[in-house]
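Researcher: Structure for this, please.
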Amino acid sequence: MDAVARLVVTHRRWVLLAWLLLAVAGGFAAPKAVAALTYDFSLPGQPGYETNRVIQERFGSGGDALPILLVDRQPSAERAGDLVASVAQALPGASVLSYAGEQALRSSDGQTAVVVVYPRIVPGPEPYVEALPALQSVAAAHQVTVTGKDALAAEGGGDQGADVLVETIFGATGALIVLLLVFGSALALLPLLIAAGSILTTFLLVWGLTGITDISFIVQFLLALIGLGVAIDYALLIVTRWREELGRGADPAEAVHRALATAGRSVFFSGVTVAISLAALIALPVPFLRSVGFTGLLIPVISVLAALTLLPALLLTAGRRLDWPHRRSTDPDSRLWRRVGTAVVRRRWLSAIAATVVLLVLAAPVLTIRLGQPTNASLASAGGDAGDAITRLDSSGIGAGLTTPVDILTADPAGVRAAVAGLPGVASAVVWPGRAGGETLVRAWTTADTSTGEGVEAAAAVRVAAEATGARVGGGPAGEADFVAAVYGNAWWVIGLIVVVTILLLIRALGSIVLPIKALVLNVLSLGAAYGITVWIWQDGHGTELLFDQRAAGAITTWVPIAVFAFLFGLSMDYEVFLLARIREEHDDGHPTDAATVRGLARTGRLVTSAALILFLAFISLAQVPTTEVKILATALALGIIIDATIVRGVLAPALVAALGPANWWTWRRRPGQPLSEPAAASRTK
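Model: Predicted structure, token format:
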């Protein structure tokens, strides 16, 4: 850090010029990077995915391209014939199965019937982008309703309207308000400038990555909003420490040296921890998550670079002038957090036990977690004709799983149909018209929605029975099952690698073996609580209508838990590093553990609370994206940050530090200047 400080102090103008050029280039690259993002959710090597590819190549649709359903409330053979003819005219080459030829597509009361359509897919984010408008016109002419997963997503907004710039401006506005309250001066602008430089530079690098590999469309939101929060957090820590050193009489250059030696060091280790946790996604055999890992790795790395170089150069150039009107003390000590710290230390065991119980209660719902896509009912809760039609279909007895059938590729269609049609939970199985490559499609669908527990079990039973006949199985349910196996079957060693590397980093950062292990345990509790509340809200349906104006998803999207772990593991560790590093510093200055704990919490309390609030607002912005999966991700991240900044950092962490006493500082070697023992530290303060 001393070398970095000398470099910035000596060459501040060159540093500013370099970052200006990067930001300008990033501004040019950002729209090009966004345009180059992909919507690829491939799973190379997984049997369900490979089967889906064969199905689409041979039949032009199907597999993980789900059907569009035309729901007829006045079914008749004549209407069915006219409707099929109109669909064939509007969508040449589409695969169609009518209720006139398949009794399973008609309800027992004869009041609801379905025509199933598989249009030919087109490359791009929306495989039916051309087909849906055409089918809407056909449906209007024949007085039927278009529905299905794609139609529901389109009616609910899908990814349309998800403007990354608007969401970022919303998050930045909230951050600016918090920063103005923290600094009471124009210094509040500096963290925003750091965030802008970091985000634009990262977009520049992502644009380069898009020329090498596919990068998912989701990263634009993660990059902008998480980048906003992380960069501001790091800048906030350094600016606060710089003002503190000015208040102690240091000149601006010396204040930069001291701020980087203390806060800058914490920022460096925090950023590396976040980067490592996100880089672990690259090791998973899922291209979509790998792209999130690549971009996630860049976010903290660039934010740290900006905080350690651009920010000091700005402080040296304009820091004094921006600190106007100076309405806040440079002393970071918070009376509120000092009182909290004193109370927690005084009742350390009671505080630790109470906080642990609360976290375990919050985490309890995670034991019932179910991975899958949002249910039909959740998507239908957005309202509209497609939502009404899917609700009617689900209650008709035809089978809610018709929206996500199991596709079976076989040379013995009659045998496969006989093997799966009578299984528990299976509504029907039909031999699909047409044959290609010597094989035929059999499509089976479940009585229950395949995003529910019953539907998942029934779809899995169909797959087992079909594969026992030698058939290959694809469709949406098989793809979901393969995704879970690919991601979570490999997660244990990825998580283990993250844990080992993180502990080694924190041992180096904190000069202790006990503190990193404690931080890791608390992080696990924090993550568990975030998962638990997310399951309670989105899977079990407590508050989704109030908070998001839609029904519960019924399941947690398959990729969300691992993405939440990757982001939240590092982000929530930030606050513990900030707190523990300050406690370590106070202890090394000669204060006993209890006093160091209170002083550390008092001096980081306002800072960490503000930083957490900024990240929370960024995730609230992310939750405005109309895609349910992104809302679930944003919910888990926002809750995790709040839990970590309050219960964990405010109560449990300081309580355990106080309870462990001298054991906190145990290591295999004594750091230079480190007190030999607690009594020695206490005697030096007298």
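Researcher: Any notable elements?
Model: The CA atoms of residues 411 and 438 lie 6 Å apart. The first strand starts at residue 68 and ends at 72.
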